[in-house]
């Protein structure tokens, strides 16, 4: 079993996330991708949108994709949503699985600020979504770490490799969606239609400050 774990604040989940998750699923031949809601993120302010809404939207976005499953691990666990705690908990639950933490290049560049970041590779692999045309500067500690662990494929091991997924990220971000919505635009085409209906039904992202 080769399990993909894709974490995010998903405020809201958008087509960029879904495209990235499905591309990783295909490219890495994953059994499935768990979409893990960062309920109480460590790297950024707590989103204004309550967890219950972000969680409902994530479930709606995954509903039409059997490859994807909304995962409540970090919703149910109290305290900060550290990736290392999540990955180690999956390792305990799936001792024989290849685990693969999926993240975009922008998130990857911040890795050295993550709690116990080097230990992530003890419990799983990292799959980084490249972003053609964008160079993200990576600090020396991460460069060195990458040199030691970068590989062309996941291989057969359960953990320990960094692979790059050559898929293009769609030029969409959750902050762009929140801004557009606040300005009175309808960024409908960037979202799953059920997520868009939910946003309207609950009047989300109107009048919030960024
Ligand atoms: P915000 O704009 O609020 O920062 P975001 O759109 O970057 O949000 P997050 O939930 O913070 O979304 O991101 C979760 C993960 O998805 C991160 O690893 C990030 O790199 C990745 N990601 C974000 N946008 C895209 C995209 N358009 N395509 C692929 N991956 C993306």
Question: What can you see in these coordinates?
Answer:
- The chain is of the alpha/beta class and 210 residues long.
- It is 36% helix and 16% strand.
- It has one domain (2-171): HUPs (Rossmann fold).
- It has a 6-stranded parallel β-sheet with strand order 3-2-1-4-5-6, sandwiched between helices.
- α2 (51-62) packs antiparallel against α9 (193-201).
- Bound molecules: adenosine-5'-triphosphate.
- Adenosine-5'-triphosphate binds at residues 8-11, 16-17, 20, 103-104, 106-107, 129, 169-170, 172-175.
User: What is the assigned CATH homologous superfamily?
Assistant: HUPs
How much of the polypeptide forms β-strand, as a percent range?
A: 15-25%
CATH topology: Rossmann fold
| Overall mean pLDDT | 93
Q: Going across the major beta sheet, what is the strand order?
A: 3-2-1-4-5-6
- Alpha plus pi helix count: 9
Gyration radius, rounded: 17 Å
Bound molecules: adenosine-5'-triphosphate
* Secondary-structure arrangement, i.e. CATH architecture: 3-Layer(aba) Sandwich
What is the helix/strand order? Answer: EHEHEHHEHHEHEHH
Helix content: 25-40%
Distance between the termini: 40 Å
Q: At the first level of CATH, what is the class?
A: Alpha Beta
Structural domain tally = 1
Low-confidence stretches: none
């Amino acid at each position: 079993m080769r399990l993909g774990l894709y974490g995010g604040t998903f405020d809201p989940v958008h087509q960029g996330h879904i495209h990235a998750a499905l591309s990783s699923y295909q490219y890495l031949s994953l059994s499935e991708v768990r979409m893990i809601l960062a309920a109480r993120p460590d790297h950024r302010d707590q989103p204004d949108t309550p967890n219950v809404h972000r969680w409902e939207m994530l479930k709606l976005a995954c509903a039409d994709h059997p490859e994807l499953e909304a995962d409540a691990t970090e919703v149910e666990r109290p305290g900060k949503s550290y990736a290392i705690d999540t990955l180690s908990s999956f390792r305990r639950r799936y001792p024989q699985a290849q685990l693969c933490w999926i993240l975009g290049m922008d998130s990857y560049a911040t890795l050295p600020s993550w709690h116990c970041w080097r230990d992530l590779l003890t419990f799983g692999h990292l799959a980084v979504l490249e972003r053609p045309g964008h160079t993200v500067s990576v600090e020396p500690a991460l460069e060195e770490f990458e040199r030691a662990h970068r590989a062309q494929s996941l291989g057969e091991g359960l953990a320990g490799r960094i692979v790059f997924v050559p898929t293009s990220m769609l030029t969409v971000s959750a902050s762009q969606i929140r801004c557009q919505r606040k300005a009175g635009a309808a960024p409908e085409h960037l979202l799953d239609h059920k997520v868009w209906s939910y946003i309207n039904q609950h009047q989300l992202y109107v009048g919030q400050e960024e």
